[in-house]
Amino acid sequence: MHTDSEGALVDRLSSYDALVEVGVGNRPTVAAALDERGCRVTATDVDTCAVPGTVRFVRDDVTDPDVSVYSGAGAVYALNCPPELQRPLVSLASRVDADCLFTTLGGDPTLVDATPETLPTQTLYHYP
Q1: Which tens digits make up the pLDDT trace of 15-28?
Q2: DSSP string of the chain?
Q3: Sorted alphabetically, which HAMAP family does this protein's record hold (predicted)?
Q4: Residue 2: pLDDT above 60?
Q5: What's the total number of domains in the chain?
Q6: N or C: which end of the chain has fewer CB within 10 A?
Q7: pTM of the model
Q8: Residue 63: which residues within 8 A CB-CB, separation 6 or more?
Q9: Which of 78, 100, 90, 83 is nearest to 21 (CA)?
Q10: What pLDDT sits at residue 44?
Q11: CATH code, domain carrying 74
């Protein structure tokens, strides 16, 4: 179950049939909510993580990705994406011809030329 603060984000991302979340960590609620809405979701992280439902998990590193994991996704997204992973995220999404979307931690800058979209409780960045 996702929190109210994630509702607008889930609404926005659920327009994609297939998505990959990069760096899921111990926060699989958005991936799970997208799965509940009928999206095909793959979650990745450098560490093995538990994910619910039919969310597929693949251990992968966005800085040295297995591109086949991301092929066919309409969007590659990351939540609380640190500045040092923004360029690798954008590069990966471009390689597989997917939209790239991410949020940051409140004070972190965006290092890529991304367009901000204001959601009720956070900003979603879209590249290009």
Answers
A1: 999 999 999 999 99
A2: ---HHHHHHHHHHTT-SEEEEE--TT--HHHHHHHHTT-EEEEEESS-----TT-EEEE--TTS--GGGTTT-SEEEESS--HHHHHHHHHHHHHTT-EEEE---TTPPP-S--EEEE-SSSEEEEE-
A3: UPF0146
A4: no
A5: 1
A6: N
A7: 0.95
A8: 85, 88
A9: 78
A10: 99
A11: 3.40.50.150
Beta strands at 75-78 and 18-22: parallel, antiparallel or unpaired: parallel
pLDDT digits (tens, 9 = 90+) for 51-84: 998 999 999 999 999 999 999 999 999 999 999 9
Question: What strand order describes the sheet that includes 18-22?
Answer: 56-59, 40-45, 18-22, 75-78, 99-102, 123-127, 115-118
What are the φ and ψ backbone dihedral angles of 77, each rounded to 5 degrees?
Answer: -135, 155
